[in-house]
Amino acid sequence: MNYKSESRKQKAESRKHQAPVLLPTAYCPVPADVRGFSLIELVITITVLAILTLGTVPLVQVAVKRQKEQELREALRTMREAIDQFHREALAGAQAQANQQQQPGRTPGQNNPQTQPNQGPQNIFADPRVRVYITDQTIFTAENIDRYPPDLQTLVTGVSVLPITAGSLNGRGNANVTALDAATEQSTIPKTKIYLRRIPIDPMTGNAEWDFRSCYDAADETSTGGENVFDVHSKSKGTALNGKEKYSEW
């Protein structure tokens, strides 16, 4: 028994003095021709990327500005077309009112000496773009005898109109007039016509605010008399991409 116990003590002491066994670390061999970037190469790479970035930013800015210019042209064209259409139908309303006063009971557009097509530009009813006429003439003040819209909001809220009767047959028998159009033209109940869905936002300023010019203002006038809205311009004082025109002159 003593021999076995001494043998166990000797083995335990030998384990204490034995050096620990270390496992080998993972090693991934790298080919001799593969190496990392040097500091100079990193500096050159960053410099090239910076130059490319600086060259791309102006191109993006020009593209954004060109897109805004297209939106501005579209907004101006939409408002000017609405102003012109309002003006034509307002003149038709004034002519219809005058005709009815001279010949009570006659509907606008019927055959009479004042509305014959051969009378030239004074015959507003011969204009194919005029399908209705404005009945409410009270919106025009004594200063606005040319019948342009008093403001842009009028184009959004709309005005009362009536259809123009097409000739003495009132559209019946005319191959260019459908039954629905003929029935609509017989209506004597005014309807509200809207010329603008909304006042467009100026893409250059980000606001739905515009400069106006009445038909009595000079072309180079910087302020308006406020009689009517004959033309609209942007409030932006910026210069277009062509470097010659200002947005306020469009």
What does this structure look like?
With 250 residues, the protein is mainly alpha-helical. It has a domain at 68-102 and 122-238. 37% of the residues lie in helices and 7% in strands. The protein contains four helices and five strands. A three-stranded antiparallel β-sheet has the order 1-2-3. A two-stranded antiparallel ribbon has the order 4-5. The longest helix has 64 residues, at 39-102.
The N- and C-terminal alpha carbons lie at a distance of: 116 Å
The dominant shape is elongated
Summed over residues and divided by their number, the pLDDT gives a mean of 78
SSE series: HHEHEHEEE
**Rg calc:** 41 Å
Number of separate helices = 4
Largest sheet: 3 strands, antiparallel
Flag low-confidence runs. 111-121, 166-174
| Helix amount | 25-40%
Strand percentage, roughly? 5-15%
Strand order of the largest sheet: 1-2-3
Structural class: mainly alpha
Number of DSSP strand runs: 5
Task: Please describe the structure with a list of short key phrases separated by commas or semicolons.
single chain, three-stranded antiparallel beta sheet, 250 residues, 37% helix, mainly alpha, 7% strand, two-stranded antiparallel sheet
Helices, strands, pairings?
Layout: H1 2-17, H2 39-102, E1 132-134, H3 152-157, E2 159-163, H4 179-185, E3 191-193, E4 211-213, E5 231-233
How do you describe this structure in short?
With 250 residues, the chain is mostly helical. It is built from 4 helices and 5 strands. The protein starts with a helix and ends in a 17-residue tail after the last strand.
